[in-house]
Amino acid sequence: MSEGIVLEEILDIQEQFQVSPPALMVIFGASGDLANRKLLPALYKLAQQRLLPPNFVILGYARSPLDDAEFRSRARSSMVTNSEVEFQSGAWDAFAPRLYYISGGYDEFEGFERLREKISSLEEQLSVGGNRLYYLSTPPSVYEPIISYLGAAGLVEHESGGEWTRVVIEKPFGSDLASAHKLNDHVLSVFDEDQVYRIDHYLGKETVQNVLVFRFANGIFEPIWNRNYVDNVQITVAESIGVEGRGGYYEKSGALRDMVQNHLLQLVALTAMEPPIAFEAKAVRDQKVNLLQAIRPLQPDEVPDYVVRAQYSAGTAATRPVPAYLEEEGVAPDSTTETYVAWRVEIDNWRWQGVPFYLRTGKALPRKATEISVTFRRAPHLLFDSTDGLDGVPFMGPHPAMSRESLSRNVLTMRIQPDEGITLKTLAKRPGPSVNLTPVNLEFTYGHSFGDPPDAYQRLLLDVVLGDSTLFTRRDEVEIAWQRITQVLEGWHMQESLAANGSGPYRLPNYPAGTWGPSESGDLLAREGQHWIVDRE
Ligand code: NDP
Ligand code: BG6
Question: Which of 167, 168, 349, 471 has the smallest number of Cβ neighbours within 10 A?
Answer without folding.
Answer: 349
